[in-house]
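Deliverable D5.2: sample structural annotation.
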Amino acid sequence: MQVQEFSQTIKQELIQEYKQHAMQGIYGQIQMEFAYHSNRLEGGKLSLEQVRSIFSEGLLLPDTKPVRLLDIEEITGHFQMFDEMLMTISNTLSHNLLKKYHLCLRNGVTGTLNFAGEYSNVNQKEESLPEELVKTMESLIRNYNEKDTHSLEDLARFHVHMEKILPFFQGNSRIGRIVLFKECLKDEKMPFWIHDENETGYRQALQKGKETGDIEDLVHLFKKEQDAFYEEFKDKI
């Protein structure tokens, strides 16, 4: 099966199973694994079995170690963000789309500043955004949208630049990784997420990109993760 056909099939299956509330197929597996790995990259401690239980049954499996409320909130927020991504998979990137993802991700998190769905330095009283941040994000989004389809190099550059800007108070990396997944499916390329066992290489490649503009290591990692995704799901569709 060619990459384009494989990606089309994955996208169709995800959307169909989501609409049918089918929790045991590809949709459920990708939801659980993507959320688990993305949150582990950000310091989350939940096991994959705990994430699976929260997703499929709304229950937290007992453990001998204390569980942070934040981990549960961020996992459920990631589930909601993934669903929103599926429903907007054909949408062009925009301020509003990124903010919508952030709102899904962070709206249920307690004990944090009220920036869910907004850039981190929104002036709440004046209902205005700092001009510099808006212009920087506007330039990033506009330059990205000048192309109809995007290579892994384009995705890597966008990811690096967003990591440099850090427009949101929390959750920037998770937003960036959901965008990578979305844009691959939108352009009918092999989707992927970053596995937590590749965290060191991922962080180093991001830092290198931010400091020097060299994205070669990041693109190499993306390709490696694409291969891993294909190997995991090639016999399931």
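Annotation notes: The domain at 3-233 is CATH 1.10.3290.10 (Fic-like fold). Residues 123-128 have pLDDT under 50 and may be disordered.
The annotation will be released with the project's public dataset once the embargo ends.
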